[in-house]
Design a protein that fits this description.
Blueprint (H helix, E strand, L loop, with lengths): L1 H15 L13 H7 L5 H28 L2 H18 L6 H29 L2 H32 L11 H11 L15 H7 L1 H28 L4 H20 L1 H8 L6 H16 L1 H31 L7 H27 L5 H17 L10
Helix pairs in contact: 1-5, 1-7, 3-5, 3-14, 4-5, 4-7, 5-6, 5-14, 6-10, 6-13, 9-10, 9-13, 9-14, 9-15, 10-13, 12-13, 12-15
């Protein structure tokens, strides 16, 4: 029986390779894309990165209705087709508006895939297996980000159009899900449907915690290169390597999630926010090689263990209905944080001006808020 579940598990976990970095996968090519669209409004060019996050949130809002209308495999394949076709087709156009339209399709695809990438684990597997599976899902997220960023950078050396071919990664998931994923209904049974307001009230602590986690984390990739360059103590060529190391540390965090939970027990909810806070304080106050490397390790590991913790805790409470109830809201919180992070940072810059390491200081404040909020998270059922 366990062996028969392995291909299904692989199919579900393959979805996690595609999700978190969906919008930023072509970020390494943004320079050459800007050069090609130099006559276009710079805001529109920047939206090539942010457009998917907006449409992910919008799609998450209607995801429960999609679950009632379509079965699991149908939904997954629809999301994967939107992701793959919309992602690759963006490189076929020479005008900015059609490119943005294709990026919106990518967002719609991920808006379908993201809740299923974790919700299907809750649907098919018992609670005692969820921790290890959520850790693997988080590790796949981080590995997908590393692979996508490296490949997009290599493809960008050929052409800005070629960088969008990174979305061909979706073909692997299409094949696996088409062959191994059952086409079960994942909608709650009739009479058990919860209103969106009820779900939001029930899981609000997890949803806001996810928003705070991603708001704190996303300030690192959005500002690290600029802050490190401005400090002038680390060679330019080492910056990309340090960021890749951070992604790898996050990958290890996902793999070690279960071991951390066994070690910390009921205190596990404090690990991610405490590491975020320590990491950003090291980046802001210590600086240099030590502060930069140690801070990056803390931030990466916090991201690697924090996401699976929140998802697994919420999933255990939602049970088999997680995919159609709490997962869309957690996904929306995650991507809304990515979308709003640059806006919030802009407002902070406007208020405080040119303060040294201001993004790290702001991230430390968010991390402290995340730490305080985590104190109110429900107690882990395994340690009651």
């Amino acid at each position: 029986m366990e062996r028969s579940l392995a291909p299904r598990t692989a199919a579900i976990l393959s979805l996690s390779l595609l999700t978190v970095m969906a919008g930023a996968a072509v970020a390494p090519a943004l320079g050459v894309i800007k050069a090609y669209f130099s006559s276009s409004d710079p805001v529109l060019v920047q939206m090539i990165i942010s457009m998917p996050a907006l449409f992910i949130v919008l799609t998450n809002a209607v995801f429960p209705a999609l679950c009632r209308r379509f079965r699991a495999r149908t939904l997954v394949l629809l999301g994967l087709l939107l992701y793959t076709v919309g992602g690759c087709a963006a490189g076929a156009f020479s005008a900015i508006l059609p490119v943005l339209l294709m990026r919106a399709l990518v967002g719609m695809g991920v808006g379908i895939i993201m809740p299923l990438s974790t919700g299907l684990l809750s649907f098919y597997y018992p609670p005692e297996k969820l921790d290890s599976l959520m850790g693997l899902s988080s590790a796949m997220n981080q590995m997908g980000g590393v692979v996508a960023t490296l490949l997009a950078g290599l493809l960008a050396n050929l052409s800005w159009r070629a960088s969008f071919l990174i979305y061909l990664m979706g073909l692997l998931s299409i094949v696996l899900c088409l062959v191994f994923l059952p086409n079960d209904s994942i909608a709650p049974p009739k009479g058990e449907n919860e209103t969106r307001r009820t779900v939001l009230r029930t899981y609000f602590r997890y949803i806001l915690a996810m928003f705070l986690l991603m708001s704190a984390f996303f300030l690192y990739p959005a500002n690290f290169a600029l802050e490190t360059t401005a400090e002038g103590l680390i060679p330019q060529g080492a910056i990309a390597l340090i960021m890749a190391m951070m992604d790898f540390i996050a990958f290890l965090g996902g793999l070690l999630f279960v071991q951390c939970k066994v070690l910390l027990g009921g205190k596990m909810k404090y690990l991610a926010p405490a590491l975020f806070l320590a990491g950003y304080l090291l980046l802001a106050l210590a600086g240099g090689w030590f502060g930069t490397l140690a801070g990056s390790v803390c931030v990466g590991f916090a991201n690697g263990v924090g996401i699976p913790y929140l998802i697994s805790q919420a999933s255990v409470r939602a049970g088999r209905t997680a995919a159609s109830t709490v997962m869309p809201l957690l996904s929306a919180a995650l991507y809304l944080a990515q979308f709003l992070s640059p806006i919030l940072m802009g407002a902070v810059r406007g208020a405080f001006g040119d303060v040294s390491h201001l993004p790290y200081c702001f991230a430390a404040v968010l991390s402290a808020a995340f730490l305080l909020w985590s104190a109110g998270l429900p107690e882990d059922p395994a340690y009651k």
